[in-house]
Predict the 3D structure of the following.
Amino acid sequence: MDEIIDYSKIYSVSKLGMFEKCPKSYHFSYLDPIYSKMKNDLKKLPHNIFSFQTLGKAIHNAITLFYHAPVDQRTYEQLKEFLKQTWQSEVMWNKKPPLGEWGGFKSLDEEREVYSQALVMLANFLQMAKIEPEFEYLPTQDLRRSIEDYQNLITPLSEVFDISGKFDLVMKDDDSLNIVDFKTGKEENGDQFQLRFYKVLAEENFKKTVAKASFYFLKTGHKKEFDLEKQETEKIKKEILAKINQIKTCQNFETKPSKLCKFCLFKTFCPEKEKVREIIGDIKEEEYSEELPF
């Protein structure tokens, strides 16, 4: 996009969620005149890179490439090839696997285990997903320019605020739309507010009704579907605006120490950093069968 984008007025599900989880983290990330400018540099430090982030990004990108491929190439073997391409470090794009600390891995054995996990997830994906869906929206296959997906979806919510986000997939379903979101976490938990938010974002961009949304839990191979047809878009807009106004009127951005602090870029600057050290622990990955390119 050629015009200058004012990101301070744009809200996404993750941005709103950060405030709910920890207002202080939100303030550090978006409002503090010193710390907010450090965010991009902090992301590049090895201790702020986590294996689950590398895994999630690789899975989502492999599925995107899968759907951009000709139908006759949408196979598990091709998915494995796409995974090799998308197994990348967010901070060192040109690094070839194994990624080591630049992918958030403490050892080669850990990276192999997580890669095995990714292969299982992709096999589960093939068992659940449509191979030839009719797309309303598919993310760009130019993975290094994926920010343009977010920019192209920026939508006015009011005269003051905009919303945006990144869909995993939006499928046509007769005269309506179905939003699909792929989950790579261990728990079968999905934020239904996320789906309501995406309903507004999709309807405003594509001018069609979102009747259904689906969570695909790739770790377990389970799928949950939600009927959104009766959800009133205007009520959802008011719900989103209420969350934004809660942020705008906040006077005291309090700290909420939790296990999530482990993944906060600003944990070493937190006024509750001693308490945070007591709470956070290590993430352990499950083991899967060996089928690894490194």
User: Anything to note?
Assistant: The first strand starts at residue 10 and ends at 11. The CA atoms of residues 76 and 123 lie 7 Å apart. The first helix runs from residue 13 to 21. The chain has two domains: 29-131+259-294, 133-250.
